[in-house]
Amino acid sequence: MYMSIYLAAAAVAGFMLCVESYGFNLSFAASSSIQQIKSRTTKQRAMSTRRLHSNNRQNSDILPPADVDYTGEVIGAQGRIGSFLVKSGCGFYAPLSNSRECEPGSKTREGAPIFVSVPATQIGNVIERTPKQRRNDLVFVTNGIPSDFLCEENAGCLYDGIDIQEITVSVPHFGILKVGQYPIANESSPPTIVHGRHSQVLQRILSEYGVRAQVVDDPKIVDGAAIKKLVWVSIMWLLCHECDDDSERRIEHPLTVVEVHEQRNSDLKRLV
Question: Which residue of 37, 126, 160, 194 shows the fewest CB atoms closer than 10 Å?
């Protein structure tokens, strides 16, 4: 009898281990259901909370005094990534909108990071609104290929005051499903690639929430990672929405990333 109980318990433990280890590429975690990642999100929230408390950091939901000396700014603070970055500053990252009236760098001293989390089409507007002496403090946590929005082919940088070796750019490989939630990370996903003056700051923030980040010393490496991500996103979108092989009609409900891996893995391997 005891042997039966032992075997049953071992089977349950083995099943739970399989469930825990099963994951998917986090670059596209937003396309999966909340239920599939609920346990992972809860685990990371607890891990992050322990780290924040161990460092005696202030609770991020507590607003600082009105005369606070901000140590950073976040452009696009109302978005998913922007709101997360604001919370990571524990009240000392100034939340700024992406409006024309907002001047990046107006809340901090020179040398403080100015995080930018806006659609790629709005990056140029943010740079143009930023004073020239503060442009190298910009930290882009956005999609897109950095050389495309910063440089012109064979003509150098498009904007005065920017040093390509100084300005901070990244290729995010994590997901945030909703405003106010924590990032979702997975060991099988590639690390977020970061280069520039404030790369260590961004790496520290992400690592506190279980997201791997790799600092590189060549902006061309960031470009390469961004191109790979763009190709991967395009392939996954195609496979999620393409017609069923056995039917001429379009799939009524697009597949999730997990379903693509399960149902169209051979197509995925051929395209990759």
Answer: 160
For helices 80-88 and 199-208, the axis angle rounded to 10 degrees is 90
Q: Where are the beta strands (DSSP E) in the chain?
A: 72-75, 93-96, 114-116, 138-140, 151-152, 156-157, 168-171, 192-195, 213-215
Given this model, what pLDDT does residue 266 score? 81
* Listed range (185-189, 217-221, 225-229) with the worst mean pLDDT: 185-189
Q: Which residues of 181-216 are buried (b: 16+ CB within 10 A; e: fewer)?
A: bbbbbbeebbbbbbbbbbbebbbebbeebbbbbbbb
For residues 20-28, average pLDDT: 36
H or E segment and range at residue 258: helix 257-263
Rounded to two decimals, the pTM is: 0.70
Alpha-helix runs per DSSP H in 123-246? 123-129, 146-150, 199-208, 219-241
Per the structure block, which two tokens stand in for 17? 């281990």
How far apart (Å, rounded) are the C-alpha atoms in residues 223 and 229? 10
Classified as helix, coil or strand, 174 is coil
Q: To the nearest whole number, what is the mean pLDDT of the chain?
A: 76
Q: Can you tell me the mean pLDDT for 55-65?
A: 42
Cβ neighbours, 10 Å, residue 121: 9
d(CA 91, CA 9): 46
